[in-house]
Amino acid sequence: MPFPLPPRAPSGLPRRRTLLASAAGAALLAGCSSGSRYSGGSGHSGKEESAGGSPSVTDRARARAARESHALVERYDAVLAAHPALTERLTPLRAEVVRHVEAFGGTPTASPTPSSAAPSPSAPSGSASSSAPVSAKDAVAALAAAERTLADSRAAALLEVPGELARLLASVAAAGAAHAYLLTEGAR
Hints:
By secondary structure, this protein is an all-alpha fold. The chain is 57% helix and 0% strand.
């Protein structure tokens, strides 16, 4: 004997699930609006300076992201200098990180050549080139960890910045997570 379905409310009123789904959809749309909560809701891009003359939230976040990407490029350079055998594998990923620097408004770093990639004896001991791990496997693992950490921090920063920059951060965070995956999967 089949189980009978409960009768529907013939009154034409919306069901509770429909109301909850509508409310959730409305909240989602309100959160995705183009207005920025940092620009007073006026719809400006958030690039203007604050009343004290200091850079806006967007400008500070872009500068920080460019610096972080530049530091990651330096890590790639250090690993490439210490392990030239990894050049074919790491060069495309490094090139993408350079594009991230450019996207955030930073100055791109020239691609290292074999002669310029070798650390000089007069290089400062605190530079990124001196921190490259000894084995190639450890170096790639360290790069993967750096990519993953940076992707996670950018994903966390999404709620702090307005629309356009949030989309850029999300895209670059996804690329960083993909880089981390490629670096760890290639080691297997």
